[in-house]
Amino acid sequence: MAEIDQIDRNILQALEADGRLANVALADRVGLSPSACLRRVQELERSGIIAGYRAVLDRSKLGVGAVIFVTVGLSGHLKKDALAFEAAMANAPEVRECHNVTGAVEYILRVEVADLAAYKDFHADTLGVLPMVQSITSHICLGSAKDG
Question: Using an 8 Å Cβ cutoff, are 11 and 37 in contact?
């Protein structure tokens, strides 16, 4: 694990809140010169602590009307089944997140669709046709107090 100090933590916190923060503003916020701040950010990127930058989208403005968290249990614990399931989820645009977890099921998915009819289609035509899927439990998200 890379050694980071409080200044690095402050840089990471500021960039996590606003990844588009200009270097001059970031430097001012963390109490460094712009050149020293840029060197630190570049080192955080080079070391992989900063893995990338992304835009946070308002999915409702893109037609997403329903978020469903889905737990999926597989019928067996064969590696080929897990790999095949993960490949199918990687190819499903409705699946925004796919997490392999411990416990009573093998996967938790975050599925984003236009409406419940679209989710029904995903449930039947994507999850429902996979031979390794044994159980599917859907949890419809009513709201998110904290997201991201």
Answer: yes
